[in-house]
Amino acid sequence: MRKRVAVIGGGIAGLAAAVRLRDRAPADTEIIVYEQSAALGGKLRTGELAGTVVERGAEAFLAGGADGGESAAVAFARSVGLGDALVHPAAVPAALALGGRLEPLPKGTLVGVPGDVHALGPVARAAAGADLDRGGPLLAPGADVAVGALVRSRYGDEVADRLVDPMLGGVYAGRADRLSLAATMPALARAARTEHTLAGAVRAAQAAAVRVPGRPVFAAVDGGMGRLVAAAVDAAGARICLGLPVHELTRTSRGWRLLLGPAPAPRIEEVDAVVLAVPARPAARLLTGVDLAAAAGVEALDYASVALVAFALPPGTPLPDLSGFLVPPTEGTLVKAATFVTHKWSHLRREGGPVIIRASLGRAGEEARLQHDDAALTATAHAELGALIGDPLPAPVASWVQRWGGGLPQYAPGHLDRVARARAALADRPGLALAGAAYDGVGIAACVASGESAADDVSKHLEER
Length: 465
Prior knowledge:
The protein is of the alpha+beta class. Helix content is 33%, strand content 23%. The protein is built from 15 helices and 22 strands. Residues 12-458 form the Amine oxidase domain.
């Protein structure tokens, strides 16, 4: 009998799940992707500025996996026919904006946490004598802690504020004092359960990392992430339903019932299995009719809002020889990071073409600072970029603003345990799997791996039936 699988959510996690289902499930399986917005891809959205491709969302993904092999994102790109389109950033350094200067990022840190505090130079000073062996591991087995709490207790406030906070802010738009060590820095968390000092834990985590000589850290798709979305859609061979929100999810004797569509004229779909790949709050609403404990665990996740502002500057505009810079919250700016796009990505440079800068605005808890119109955000970003670089920028020839309201999950301490409990609560409801950044990590590689894992769970359920 022909099986039907619903993938609720058309972001990269949902699309990766759909492709994996097509690969693993029987050939006649019907796969339906429901996306309530008018477009697939989620936070992957490719834009254009003055004739140059500029991402309006994620611009790159990790090239390597924790095991030393290719990341899930690279393998996924190859699987959908884009292996020859992979490109890598130029070998130019990044910096920290501190007190009107751009200081080189210290080398040898782990997401900003140094293994040698004496190598930080002018960026930060560590608290003398705080990182002592106190007779036991930094973390108890299974324990979790905020990254900032651990770093402050061992290295002091300056390292946390000027180095770790901007590094984590660049990825999560969050604050180190509120982000889970186990969720955001799992390698360091594992080492902290055996090592007695933070410096020792950093060095142990770095030593355990599998590195492939010559492999770039990041990769992207020539032509933009929109190509990855389109290729995934083609490979999945799924029925795509856009602008069709799912309102209710109910377990039945044979599978799952979906209530979807506009409230005045709802419709019902019956499917054998479901991959739920939407953000935490809509996921929690759907899970309310399935398991209240799972819904409560998922709903606990908060999100940060950010805005991206891109500028096309006149050809030849001088910029520092950097890929970009991060800004500590202590600087007080709305801009938290900037990418010199045409410096970082050599395939985007054109003779006589514009110089492109993309700035990221806003951190967790700063939503009110983003509540201005596009013109005001553009003016603020332009002025702050000039001040942070140390030289006013010329007027742009073009610009755009992209807002991501509630775009980045904030993994509070205990996040991994909450996710594990939610999944355990759903274990006796086979054929339903959770996927996406709400559970298994931000970044394209993490979302792809999460979607594929969910698809494997669903495929196994279909086989057992």
